[in-house]
Amino acid sequence: MHRLLIMLPVLVSAAIVLTPDPAQAHEPTCQRRDTTVTLTPDSAVRYRIAGWMCRPARPTNTVQVLMSGFTYDHKYWSLTGSGRSYVSAALQAGTAIYTVDRVGVGVSDRPPADEVTVLAEAFVAHQLVQQLRRGPSGFQHVIGVGHSYGSAIWMIEAANHHDVDALILTGYLHQANPVQQAAVAAGLHQASEDPLFANSPPPGYVTTKPGARGRSFYYLPGADKAALALDEQTKATGTSGQRATMNLARDPSYSRNITVPVLLVVGDHDALSCDIAAGLLCSTAKQVCARERDYYPTNTPVYAAVVPKAGHSINGHRTAAAMQSSLVGAWARTAFSHHAVAWSRCQA
């Protein structure tokens, strides 16, 4: 059994605050580490990004940077649907983790909603990667890890900047199920109307309606009830800019410019990615490969894995350990050597 991890060295060229964080008290090796970023290369306006740096027991030169999905913050990676969190599994596997509240969510700054787009967040991710690599304690290898919209961020970042060493993309394939996309959209409302957001987020910020997350993001027979309840209690916001641009990464011009190893992970009951009636098959890794291989260059290693009895938000399902252990942790350690292991490599 293998597990997944991520960590961050000192972020240079940015303001950093390093403090123990009560919200991550169950992850005892994590410390709060913030930085500042801009949304575009020519902007002078800097926004604070809240981050958590997690170190494994032994030294490592590889860091995984975690990006959450739409209406999720860093707490997604601490859901314990399988009995332990993604972060805990990663630390046990021996790599480092840097998990963030993306700009506009959690305790990070909230820019105007129309400015928080997938293109802006891809540039933010690029700044984080560069900060992680700098200095005497910089990491040699940086892996971009995303969930859903977070995967879209990493696809664009990798295509535009070519500065990550590998990608782990969960819950995001090139073809989506439009029926479920419409259902998710119908389950949104203005964050200012939600009792969980009494601090009145700016106009254009949305969140899921109370009780909507189960039907939007979960395969309920496989969901962990406690994880789903926590998901509802800790939900985050999304923006009008994200909604308008989140499908941009499905443009093949991005994936065809990705040159590093890619691991695609999807739940076999992910209603946003899978629909038998529409021909969107994802019950097996072979089916995922058939859908995705041609979107990437022939010399880009592409792998696929399917988590059984899991919906879109994999970490809240009881089978999440299939991703955390036997898949992602081992793959992260062999991504640079291309050794054959338990997942399926998609043949060009």
Automatic annotation (TrEMBL):
Keyword list, A-Z: Hydrolase, Signal
Stored InterPro entries: AB_hydrolase_1, AB_hydrolase_fold
Signal peptide bounds: 1-25
Domain AB hydrolase-1: 65-318
Matching Gene3D superfamilies: alpha/beta hydrolase
Gene Ontology MF term list: hydrolase activity
Keyword presence, Hydrolase: yes
Protein name: Alpha/beta hydrolase
UniProt source species: Dactylosporangium siamense
